[in-house]
Amino acid sequence: MIDLQNQRTPKQTGFFMFLSKNVLYGDIGIPAGLLVGGIVSNNKEMRQNAGYVASSTAISYGFMVLIKHLVKRPRPFVQNIRITPVYRAGGTSFPSGHTSSSFATATALSAAYPKWYVIAPSFFWAGATSYSRMYLGVHYPTDVGAGIILGTGSSAAMSFLKK
């Protein structure tokens, strides 16, 4: 994490801050867009997939909050004074909520629409968002790894809703 911190540039920092600040637009916007598209086009499958993506992300969020409450791991910059975050995130560190929600959304969307042009950008967004949390100095790699597992697992658990 110190190496990441020492390699920061203003351009990269701006990009990763943008991803971190706007993760909810993808997490909420993707299922909302599917729902609206399904209503407008009278496409039942699209509406059901909107529910699948939304529920995957919601379940991931619920478990993330529960785990954070139980584990209460301090942020990296709290435990190691050599780590300087780009901004001081509040709350606890384990697991990464940004990672779990973005991976839940990406995994569910990719399972619902298994085309390369859906899968590639979905996982690029989720992966870049996850990396941003370490780059910005607010999560450990293990926080991000746990978020990936939690988000992907939530999507797998809700896959019975996929059409």
List its salient traits.
transmembrane; mainly alpha; PAP2/HPO_sf; Phosphatase PAP2 family protein; Vanadium-containing Chloroperoxidase, domain 2; 0% strand; PAP2/HPO; elongated
Secondary-structure blueprint:
Elements: H1 2-6, H2 10-21, H3 23-40, H4 44-71, H5 76-79, H6 97-112, H7 116-135, H8 141-157
Helix pairs in contact: 2-7, 3-4, 3-6, 4-6, 4-8, 6-7, 6-8, 7-8
Query: Which geometry do the CA atoms define?
Result: elongated
Structural class: mainly alpha
> Percentage of helical residues?
over 70%
Largest sheet entry: none
| Integer tally of domains | 1
Query: Would you state the CATH class?
Result: Mainly Alpha
Distance between termini? 41 Å
H/E element order: HHHHHHHH
Subcellular location: Cell membrane
Main location: membrane
Membrane topology: Multi-pass membrane protein
Keywords: Cell membrane, Hydrolase, Membrane, Transmembrane, Transmembrane helix
Give your account of this protein's structure:
The chain crosses the membrane at residues 23-40, 52-71. Helix content is 74%, strand content 0%. α6 (97-112) packs antiparallel against α7 (116-135). The chain has one domain (10-161): Vanadium-containing Chloroperoxidase, domain 2. The mean pLDDT is 92. The longest helix is centred in the middle third of the chain and has 28 residues, at 44-71. The termini are far apart. It contains 8 helices and no strands. The protein is elongated and about 55 Å long. With 163 residues, the chain is mainly alpha-helical. The chain has helices at residues 2-6, 10-21, 23-40, 44-71, 76-79, 97-112, 116-135, 141-157.
